[in-house]
Inverse folding.
């Protein structure tokens, strides 16, 4: 009898835990529903992978920090065309694929702590950033979570705009990792609004408990002092482009604010 009660108690506890976890996921998805930026979105970069939508609010941006170079620098070239210096970091390549006098490259990975092949966002910005607002474009294959958690909030607030490709976003469903991902997102959302979200169709979606989350999601954040409009519903945006030749992946309805209900 004791073992039966224990089994039943454990099963009930697991059900309640899963319901609680889904409630936490629903809450963070609601908080990430894109809102209209005060200025229209423009596309910087090419029509494929490496192009992103940002608010047309670049006047006064003193520098762009772009960790994760890989094989394309279309976004950074777009910054350079606006005479915005670009600081780039990636230990997996020897240099950006194209050259520009506005590019400043370091062969390092971005991480939560410094090391032989790693720098932190805090030390990198402190050593290079001019005065004024900054822009962050970060695609670092999953390390974004530890970097966000390790970076002081007052430093993150130096960025007027942040474009982050989130990897493994479906792990919001999981216990320990889900709490860490939620903590990182809530840290950013304390000072930034989401103004654009675009699933990268190079990866699939994950569905649990009626909620669907892209495994890869490109998100544009705008600092709250720049203002904000209403909740958006134009998904996909007219300037969105597929990352690969796989079928187009719209923003799942699960990532709309409870189907745009109030509250």
């Amino acid at each position: 009898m004791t073992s039966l009660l224990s089994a039943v108690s454990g099963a009930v506890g697991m059900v309640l835990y899963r319901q609680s976890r889904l409630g936490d996921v629903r809450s963070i998805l609601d908080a990430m529903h894109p809102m209209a930026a005060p200025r229209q979105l423009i596309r910087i970069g090419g029509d494929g992978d490496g192009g992103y939508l940002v608010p047309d609010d670049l006047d006064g941006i003193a520098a762009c920090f772009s960790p994760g170079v890989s094989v394309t620098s279309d976004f950074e070239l777009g910054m350079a065309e606006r005479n915005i210096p670009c600081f780039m970091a990636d230990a997996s390549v020897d240099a950006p694929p194209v050259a520009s006098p506005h590019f400043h490259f370091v062969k390092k990975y971005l991480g939560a702590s410094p090391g032989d092949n790693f720098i932190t966002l805090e030390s990198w910005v402190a050593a290079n950033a001019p005065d004024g607002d900054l822009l962050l474009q970060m695609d670092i294959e999953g390390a974004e979570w530890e970097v966000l958690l390790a970076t002081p909030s007052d430093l993150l607030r130096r960025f007027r705009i942040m474009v982050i490709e989130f990897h493994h976003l479906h792990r919001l469903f999981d216990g320990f990792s889900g709490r860490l991902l939620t903590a990182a997102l809530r840290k950013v959302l304390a000072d930034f609004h989401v103004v654009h979200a675009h699933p990268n169709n190079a990866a699939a979606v994950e569905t649990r408990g009626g909620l669907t989350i892209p495994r890869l999601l490109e998100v544009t954040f705008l600092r709250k002092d720049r203002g904000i409009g209403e909740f958006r519903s134009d998904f996909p945006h007219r300037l969105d482009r597929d990352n690969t030749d796989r079928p187009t992946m719209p923003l799942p309805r699960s990532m709309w604010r409870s189907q745009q209900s109030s509250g």
